[in-house]
Request: fold
Amino acid sequence: MMPGLECPASCPFVEAQRPHSGFPVGQVRRVAAYDRDQDVDETKRNVLKLLAVAGIVGAGAGGLVGGTLQYIQPPMIGISSYPKTQLIDVDGSPLTVAKVESEYNVTTSDLYLFDYPLQNEPNFLLNLAPANGSAPSSTNPGAWNVPQGIGTHGSIVAYSAICQHLGCPAPAISYYPPGTCTKTFPTPASPTQPFYIHCSCHGSTYDPANAAYNLTGPAIYPLPLTVLVSDDDGNIYATGSEGQPVKGHLSTLTGDYGVGTTSQLAKESPVILCSFPT
Ligand code: FES
Reply:
């Protein structure tokens, strides 16, 4: 198991609690590379042990368990539809397009997270525009006109910050700005794209400039895309989600209580692991 992260134990239960990184914001936390195959083998062994125990208990308890389970299962909580939720900046003021475009860009390393559509369901808020304001190119990293992007150049996007492999939440899954690692990926936008979203738990990588599509496994689904809109004053709202349900939930609308009409950004430091599946 990878040292320094609680992710493997907490991954399937992200809706129950989101671990806090516990170190000062503004710092990049780098974690050492680890033996991914060994980690997967250990996970398999634990699953087999659980299945063996479940089999013994099931054989002993028989119909008694089946007859009583229906009375001890907690009720499924959730919401019936996607709310229109206004995003609130870290300082408590309404988050606007102008603010995001002036303060954040593709090089921003701190994570800006907001819960949506349920509590304890973090999402990345990203502005992928190049830092110098010029059009992106092979020598000027960044992206304009990304799918569902808003703002002057369609560069502001949001994605679920819960990995689609086994559900590790941010900051175990983090945004990596250009230059964070030497690794680059061929993407529709660039043959050597130097920025991506990467999960330290088992190495899944996603393309934030292309609907969070998968660049490396083991995850096979893109991160759910959170739909953003802005009003005439530039205020930003989350209004829905596209793609597969958030990992660990039957649907993106079930598993916790709704966030309501506002959701405030939280600033966290990323966890960085420059180790990628081959
Ligand atoms: S939880 Fe396994 S790669 Fe993210």
About this structure: The chain has a mean pLDDT of 81.
